[in-house]
Structures are given as C-alpha cells and as structure tokens.
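Subject: mismatched residue count in predicted assembly?

I count 683 residues in my input, but I want to confirm that the predicted structure covers every chain. Input:
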Amino acid sequence: MGEEEKVIYFDNNATTAVAPEVFEAMTPFLTKLYGNPSSIHHFGGQVMAHVETARERLAALLGAAPTEVIFTSCGTESDNAAIRSAMLTCPQRDKLVISKVEHPAVLNLAKDLERRGYRVSMIPVDGKGKLDMERARELIDNQTAVVSVMWANNETGNIYPIHELADLAHRNGALFHTDAVQAVGKVPMNLAESQIDFLSLSGHKLHAPKGVGALYVRRGVRFRPFVIGGHQESNRRAGTENVASVVGLGKAAELARLNIEKENIQVRAMRDKLEQGILKTIPEVRVNGDAEHRLPNTANISFEYIEGESILMLLDMFGICASSGSACTTGSLEPSHVLRAMGIPYTAAHGAIRFSLSRYNTMDEVDFVLEKLPPVIARLREISPYWNQK
Amino acid sequence: MWKYTEKVMDHFLNPRNVGEIEDADAVAEVGNITCGDALKIYLKLDAEGKIAEAKFKTFGCASAIASSSALTELVKGKTLEEASKITNKDIVALLGELPEEKMHCSVMGMEALQAAISDYKKKHGENYNIVESDDDHEGRIVCKCFGVTDTKIRKVALENNLHTVAQVTDYTKAGGACGRCLDEIQEILDGIWREQAGAQSASGEGSSKADEFAKLTVVQKVIKVNEVIEKEIRPALERDGGSIELADIEGNIVKVRLKGRCAACHNAGLTLRKLVEAKLREFVSENLTVQEA
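Triage response: the counts match. Full output below for your records.
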C-alpha cells in the first residue's frame, strides 16, 4: 500500500503516530546535537540537560519525582527490570502474583520465572474481564515477593483496581508493579500519593517514537539493574541514552499532561459513537470488557460466526486499521488469552475486533468506518456455514 | 501482516462457488467453530459421474476462504476417483503459495474433499470402488485441543515432507494450543523418519552405548542417568550453590529440574547444554537430549 493512500488508523493500542511537536523536539538530537550526555566537554554535556528536562516532564505526568524515573528501551524492558529486581531483592520470598490477562511481556516472563523454580499465581477474571478480588486476597500472601497487575488492558481497555491491589500487596509485605503501558497519558495519575512501587510505560503508545520506555521506581525501593554496564541513569540502567527518543518521550508526556482531560472527552465521544453505531446497525455483536471501567479510546467488539482476520483484511481494503483477538492474525492457533480468560465463547472470540482511537482521529473517520463495516460483516456471514444454521 | 499472493487475495476477495447445493450428491463438513476454521462442501455429479457443481461455505481467515474457493475450482469436471487424488499441495499450487503457518487451511480443504467422497460412497453403496480415507476417524487422538490423530499427523508429514514439530503444527494445528502433545508429535516424527531411513539403508553403524541404553528398562535408565548426575554433574553445580534433580525420562529425552541458585540463573539454558547434556552424552548415550522439566 502506498504511503499516500487514505489510512483510518483505529489501532492506537498497538502503536500511535509520533506527534508533530514530538518529532520537532527530537530532530536537533538526530542532527547537530549528537553529543554523548556523559561526555566531559560542553558539546556532549549540554545534551544531559535535555535528558533531565524530559525526565521532569515525564515525572510531572506521573505525579512522581524526576529521580524516580528511569529511561529504558521499551515497556517490556521496564516490566522485566521491575519484576526481576523485585524477585532478586526479596530472596526469602519465592512467589509472583499476576493476573490472567497480563500482556505477554509479563505473562511470558512469569512463565520463564516459573521454569526457574519460582511460584506463579494468577488472579482470574470474570466474563467482563473484571479481576476476582476475593481470589486476589487469597493468592497474595506472606510468601509473595511481588504482585504485578496491569493498569489497563490492551485488548479490552479494562481499567484495574491497582490501588487496592497495591495496598493488598503492601499489607502482605510484597512489592507492587503495574504495567501501565496502555494507561499512561489516558488515565490521570499521581504516583506520589499511591502505593505503587514500580510502573512500566512505553513511549510509542503515547505519541512518542518506538524504542523508548521508562520505569518508575518509588524512592526507597531497592532496585537491581536489569541492563548491566555503565553508570547511566544513576547506575540503574546502563547503556548510552537514546537521547532523541528520550527527549521525544518527555515532549509527549508534556502534551499528554496538558491535554489529558480534553482529549479523553473528545476520544470517548468518538469511541462511543463508533460502538453505538455498530450495535445499532449490525446484528449478533457483543461488546467485550467492562463498560464502566474502561479506557476512553478502546472498543472490543465480537462479530459472531465470522473470523477476525477476514474482517481485518476486508477493512484493510478501505485503509481501515484495527486489530483482532482472533487466532489467525498472529499465526497462533488459539484466540487471545485475554478473551479466553474471560470465558468469551469461541463463536465470539474468533470474531473479536479491537478498535482503539487517539486524538488524531475524527468523527468523519468514525462515520466512514460505520459506513464500510456493515457490508463487510454481511459479506463474510454470507460465506460462513454457521450464519444460516443459527 | 501475512504475505498473501495475488491469487490468494483474488480467491479471498472474489471467492468462487460460495453457497449450498440443496440436492447435493455428497456433503461434508470439517473443522468447527472452536478450532477457528470450518469448511462445508457440497458436490453434485453429472450423468457421467463427473463433478458438475461444487459449492462451499467457510468460517475462517483469508487463506481458509481462498483454499476453499481453490478447492471447488480444482474438483470441477473430475470424477470422484480423480478428485480423491487431490492433496493439499494441489490447493497450494493453485494459490501460488501460502504462508507456512497457514498450511493447515489447505489441509482442511483436502480433508473436506475426502470426507465428501466418503459421504458419497456411504450413500451409494459398495459399487463405488474408491479408497476410504476419512483419517480423522482412525487412529488415536494426539492433540486433544484440535482433535488431531496420529494417523493424520503421519499422513500429512509424509505427504509434505515435514521434519519438525513446528511444521506439523503449521500443517495440522496439532500442538498449537496447550502444547502438551509436542513431545508425542516429535516421537511420531522420529518414528516416521527412522522407518524411512531404515528402509533406505538396511544396516547403519549404530553406536554401541546408545544401543545399550535403548535396551534398558525405564528403572535401569533412571539408575544409570542418576549415577552420572551424582558423580559428574551435581558436584559441579553445588560448587555454584545450585543443584539438580532428575524428573523424567521419555525415550531419549531426559527431563531435569535445576534447583537452588541454578533455578534463578540466567545461564540455566547454557548449563543444561554444556554441562548436563554433554556429561550424559559422554557417559550414557550420544542420543540423549536434556530438557528442563
């Protein structure tokens, strides 16, 4: 597909467009200001001030102190650093508690730790994807080193009661980590007044570039670096700073902080119109997730009796970008672990489509999708052996 | 993003022969909604016994729909006997190419056709003399998640020259969900290709230590392996604050658990290969593979 063709990008939980202001803020560091911030000379050293400004801006978005922010290469690295550090600094405890709907960054790390002799317990969810808090209270105990539960789910947009979980962890002497990759920039935060010990975030989910993330580590929490080497990031994350991207993340955080309320209202209106429109015009659809506690930008909708990849490919013909919880889109053979954990029937899980919006979408685009989607669904149902039988 | 050929896209966007035939001579349905794809095929024969009409309905991804469409094009004008020789490779050939992970879509097409031919035979009695080939009803279920039998795995592996478990998963889905049957699939593959190799070269050299090990009973194997672990492996691990425990032996696969510091060590994989496996191969059998339990 040529770059000039029309793109309706409703896949912002996968990645987002780099904001023009972010790009502009980054360019000097990809051109003339290429120095190494660790250098003793002025040419390099001056760059450090910009890294520190970025840290302040990101800390302001999180409601944290700048010294509590470590820049990393991505959300996955932050998750790895936090959880591994927690396990290493609490050697007398051997248990990790996570939810069943974590991102693979946490889920597969947990599986790996399990193979290495740690115990992993998973908090189940109900049909709407809500955590079973009663079970959580049973699972989090005095053998638990760390509890890691995502702030918001990437597939359904569900927002989880992380403050309650953090409190539960602390009352059992455990640390609390949250993968907030989908929440940062969409959910207002004040970490200083929370009990969260570690928080992971990723730049490219909030209009900064790919290849940069950050980890918040509460002051006073013991930390063992994950990437070992030089002294960068106050000895907490080695490797020469990805200066341009760090500056970009700082700028993106500033934009998010200034616009979060306005943006949420605007994006929510678009999402609700899309969702209501689909429910009105297409039969046999269901919304997956917890409508009351959900990110304002995400709609996960199952089109029953048809398969997600086919839907996405037909939408792609119109330049409409979305994602699917179906097995076929990833080459895996089972539908998404999140939808399965929720007990969504297979008739619906294979045909689940995620639309995720951002401030760069428009109501016209929502109308365009609402116009193109019903015939696509009808066409695939015409081919499906289950549609008539029903 | 999948790399689909123009042919696949054409058959997906403009599928041929979608629909049902009310007075079909043969009907078959394979797959189901749980598995993520399903195909229902209808055949109608003319007076000469050739397939005059073929229609389908498919639940599935783009390549499943394209494979079904290609299949209906392939069978038209053929007698059932001719059609029974069509394999998944013919479907792939008509489409140009399918991604490896999507090969099971072409296999589903082949299975639907074979099931339809069986259906015809059942309806029209013994005078229709073609080979029964509804493989899914024979053999033992290996993959419980997708209901794949050992017979089907053997057949598809031989037909498509598959040598790895990952390939078998791509072509049959077997092992693609919970993964509990992966070892068993490996054993089936080992069996097939050992037979093939055996058929080609009647007498190989064979290694005496490996042959000896193969002849042992399970308990004797456990004792032998444990001896080597105690003498050659555990002391080295204990020097680093770690330990090891034998969990299971299946054929030539030795499963162990690393303990203590080894369990949390980033280099555990390396330890398994360089130390545990190397020692067991040296002192027990060259054919052993070590896995973490």
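Chain A touches chain B through 32 residues (CB under 8 Å). Marking this ticket as 'not a bug'.
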